[in-house]
Every structure is written in C-alpha cells, then in structure tokens.
Amino acid sequence: MAAHTLLMSTSARLRDRRVTLERRATASKAVRTSLVSLAGLVGGPVTNQSGEEVGRVVDVVARLYGPEPYPPVTGLILRIGRRRTFLPADAVGKFQAGHVRLRTARVDLRDFARRPGEVLLAKDVLDHQLVDVDGVQVTRAADLYLAPLVDQVVLVGVDVSLPTLLRRLGPRRWQARPTPERVLDWQAVAPFAEQATEGPPEVRLRASRTALHRLRPADLADILEDLGRAERQQLLGWLEPEQAADALEEMEPAELENLLREAKPEHAARLVDEMEPDEATDALRDLTGEEREALLTRMPKGEAAELRRLLTHREGTAGGAMTTLLVTAHRDATVADMRALLAEQVEHRTEVDAVAVVDDEGRVLCDIPLFDLAVAEDTAPVADLVTWRAQFGPPVTVQADTPLSDAADQLVAARASSLLVVDDGDRPLGRILADDLLDALLPERGRLHFRRFLQ
C-alpha cells in the first residue's frame, strides 16, 4: 500500500510538471515561430507607416516585476538624432526581425522616466546573470526573445547558448535571426535586475519566488556559490530566512565564509541565527574573532549565548560537532506525549532522529530511536520502552572532549545514526549526527554536488 501510494504521488508530481511545461509559452509552435530577437532589435530602425525611418532602437522597456507570468513590453527607448526619447508600446504596430514598424505616422515621443517594476532589457538583463531553475544552474542571457501573446508583446524566453553569442558578433543580418534551440522559458528563470528598478519589493519578491521555491537547499547552495557577489546577496534577500539558512548549511565552508563577510552584519547575523546550532558554530569558527563578535552581538541574547557555549568546545571533538537541539522526555510520559514533543520540532526534523529519556536528575536513561516510537501504541508508557531497550545495553554516549575519530568508532559499533554527548554527570548536552561526523572527519571530501559532477 505504501509503495503504491508513493508511486501514485510521484506520478501526480510528474503529471503536474508536464502540464506546467505544456502551459509555457515557448512550448507553443506559434510562439516559437514568431520570436523576435532583442539583440537583433537593438540598433535597428524604427519606421512609420510610410516606411520612413524615424529613429533607432536603443533599448526595450518591460515590466519585469509585475503580476504577469510573462513581462509585457511597455515601450521603447529610441535615438532620434542626438536625442534619446521614450515611445509607448501602444504606438508600436509590429516587432519584426531587426526593426520595428509604428502603428501611426504621428508618434507621441516623451522623456523616459522609469516606472515601478520596469527594466531596460538590453541594459539590465541581456548578458547578465540569471538562474535557470529547471536546469538548476547560473547562466547568462545571450539573447532575449519577444513574441506577441494575448494582444501584447511580451518577453517569453532567454537564449543562453554559445552560438547565440557568436551570432551577435557577426553581420547585422545574423544578429536579428533567433536561434530557439536553447531557449529557456521565462517562467523557468529568476533574473537579477533589482538594482535597475524601483518597483515594490514585495512584487519583485513574488515574481522571483515563483521560480525559486521549487529548488532544494543543495540546489540553492550550488547557485549561491556560482553567483556574483551582488546577485547572491539579492538572492538571499528573496528567500525566507529559514530557506536561506538551509541553503547556507549546504555550502562549501570557504564559500559560506565569503558570503557572510559580504553580507551586511545585521543580515548575516539573522542568517546564522536561523541555521542549526552545529552548522552555525562551524560557520562562526571560520570568521575572525572580531567578525564573529560582530554577528553574535546582533543576535538574540539567548541564541548568542548558546553559540558562545558551543564555541568553547574545541574543533575536532564531540562537543565541537554536536547540535544542542535535543528532544527529551521522562519515564512517566506516554508515547503520545513524546510524539507531541516531536511535532513541535517539525522544522528541525533533519536534526532529530531519537528522543532522550532522562530521570528526575536529568541523567540519561535511554535513547529511543524514532522508529521505535513510530511502531509503539500512543498509550504505551515510555517506561515500557525504556525497559524494552535495556536488553540492547545502555545508551551509547560520549563526552564533549571525546575526539571525533573515537566518536565515529562508537557510532559504527552501535550501528546508530547519532550519539548523545553528555557531561560528567551523564546529563545530555547535545547530539552528534552521522552526517556531521562525515563532514568533520572528511573535510577534503566537501559537499557532494551531484549536479556539477554530472555536468
């Protein structure tokens, strides 16, 4: 039954993804055959109904950060003699390969004033970094494609291919020729042009999250590592603090160190505060004492005090690699009580794999794996589970100053996925997870970025 349910849910996700792809504009043959190259338009002539040239295209203005799935073109920047002026989109009759034809012989030319959400496509987006969400990679826009869609001209896609860059270096007749073989649909793109617009932040945020919310933390980490300084700080600003912290935990230590130094101290402090305690401690250790203190003083006092305690443990020891996130219970509780405690920690589910049972003095009696809780009856007393687990011997614990290599030996011997770290009185201080041991013992391995490996 469980396998069948999993298969059905997987099929549903694939079906939803296929429907989404089919709804994208660039999947339409009519749209693909009507693409107009932005690179070919720039510098091209603008003619009136009589075919007389009235100016040259300098740039195309689009409302990039708006509610529409495809940014509509709102006008053109023209060069007429030595003057640059703005032509509203409603004066344009047709966008063609390499030139623009006007709707009327008389045009209303205005001085250009950027409105909220607008960008200049050639200046602000073309040749700039963007995120290909489907391919999970950072790339650059070699060309942008416009197309008529629902009675208006919109930005429908981005060309990221090398041949397109070469095409733009060739003769003028080549530059206007679209090459749609490597077109990314605009809905699969997160652009970085925030510095070029004064649009409402919440609008920019909504437009960008539409594409980015599908990415896993490891994917976001890859992207953050590949972005330039300004772009990755912008991306961090788009993400919810919890989502950003999850991505930071997957980054290479050197890249994370650079990112925290680049960010404003207030923002960096908030990001570190959202990270799991053990990951935050590792990140702070890589900073100088002055940089570390600058972040700690900007955190809530309780969280800062906890991180300072963790920093007192030497690197390479159990205390230096443990997380202080613990779920504990007493013998007189029930399994239902323990499940309620776990439900409160749902956002930290990757950091919790067992519940420590302690006596009235806070000493460890038992460490109950989540599987044992999953198969137990809600009404079962925790004391019964403690008695049942006793047949496997006492819980495996280590001291805070235990070398990580020794802790790894004990973890393997116990065939467990984590170890409790205790003080001299056998009271739990924290927990070391198996993946944290691997990261600490094999730093030269780095994070496993399967996307890069496959590329």
Measured distance between first and last alpha carbons:
37 Å
How many E-type strands? Answer: 20
Instruction: Report low-confidence residues grouped into runs of 5 or more.
Output: 1-22, 195-208, 445-455
Q: Which structural class is indicated by helix and strand composition? A: alpha+beta
Shape: elongated
CATH-scheme architecture of the largest domain: Roll
Task: Output the CATH homologous superfamily of the largest domain.
Answer: PRC-barrel domain
Question: Brief description of this entry?
Answer:
This protein is an alpha+beta fold. It folds into three domains: 36-196, Roll (SH3 type barrels); 215-312, MgtE N-terminal fold, CATH 1.25.60; 328-441, CBS-domain.
Explain what you see:
It is a single chain. By secondary structure, the chain is α+β, with helices and mostly antiparallel strands. It has three domains: 36-196, SH3 type barrels; 215-312, MgtE N-terminal domain-like (MgtE N-terminal fold); 328-441, CBS-domain, CATH 3.10.580.10. 41% of the residues lie in helices and 21% in strands. It contains 22 helices and 20 strands. Strands 2, 3, 4, 5, 6, 7 and 8 form a seven-stranded mixed beta sheet that branches. A four-stranded antiparallel beta sheet has the order 1-11-12-13. A hairpin with a 2-residue loop joins strand 4 and strand 5 (83-88). Helix 10 (241-248) crosses helix 12 and helix 13 packs across helix 15. The chain is elongated. Mean pLDDT is 81; it is low at 1-22, 195-208 and 445-455. InterPro entries: CBS_dom, CBS_dom_sf, Mg_transptr_MgtE_intracell_dom, MgtE_N_sf, MgtE_transporter. This is CBS domain-containing protein. Keywords: CBS domain.
